[in-house]
Amino acid sequence: xxxxxxxxxxxxxxxxxxxxxxxxxxxxxxxxxxxxxxxxxxxxxxxxxxxxxxxxxxxxxxxxxxxxxxxxxxxxxxxxxxxxxxxxxxxxxxxxxxxxxxxxxxxxxxxxxxxxxxxxxxxxxxxxxxxxxxxxxxxxxxxxxxxxxxxxxxxxxxxxxxxxxxxxxxxxxxxxxxxxxxxxxxxxxxxxxxxxxxxxxxxxxxxxxxxxxxx
Length: 215
Description:
- The protein is of the alpha/beta class.
- The protein folds into two domains: about 5-10 and about 140-200, no CATH class; about 15-135, Periplasmic binding protein-like II (D-Maltodextrin-Binding Protein, domain 2, 3-Layer(aba) Sandwich).
- It has eight helices and seven strands.
- It has helices spanning about 30-35, 50-65, 75-85, 95-105, 150-165, 170-175, 185-205, 210-215; strands at about 5-20, 45, 70, 90-95, 110, 140-145, 180.
- Strands 1, 2, 3, 4, 5, 6 and 7 form a seven-stranded mixed β-sheet that branches.
- β2, α2 (about 50-65) and β3 form a beta-alpha-beta unit.
- α2 crosses α7 (about 185-205).
- It starts with a strand and ends with a helix.
C-alpha cells in the first residue's frame, strides 16, 4: 500500500477442496463430521507456510470449526504428490492445478471456494452450498507500478490491460485455466488490496499461526 500503486486487478481464481479417494468422505458435511470426531488427526497439505493455500485452509478451519493438521510443502507439486500418495488426506488447490487430478480420479473434489459454481467443475458445489457459511477465498493476479507514478501513466497502462483482456484468444486461454477475468480500475484494485489485507490479517490473528510463522 505504501510502495506500490495499483493499476488493475487482472483476474481471480477460486480454490477447490480435494481429498484422497481413500478418505471415507463424499461431501464437505462428511469431512466436517470426520474432522470433529478426529480433531488434529486429519492432515492437510499446503504449498508452504504463509502461502495462499495455507491461509485459505486456515479460514476453512475457522469457518467450519474443525481442527486439521497442517503439513507445508515447497510448492503445489510436492503437496499433490503426497496427497495422491496418501501421506496427507486433504488439500485446497487452485483450479488450474487441481482439475487435471480430479478428472483423472486421483483425488475427489468436495467444494469450490467461489461465490458460484465454476464451469470447469459444474457438479461441484460451492463451500457455502455445502454448508460452510461465509467461506469464500481466491487467489488473484494484478498489476502494480512503483508508488508515485503519475496517474496519466497508470491510466494508460490500465487502458492497455483492458484492451488485452478483451482479446478473445487471451480470454479463452485464461478461462481454460479457471481464471475469472476482471480488468478493474486502479481505484477498484486498490480497494480490493485493502480488503484482502484486512481479511487475511484477521485470519492470521484468529488462527494463532502468526507467532509460529515469525519464529
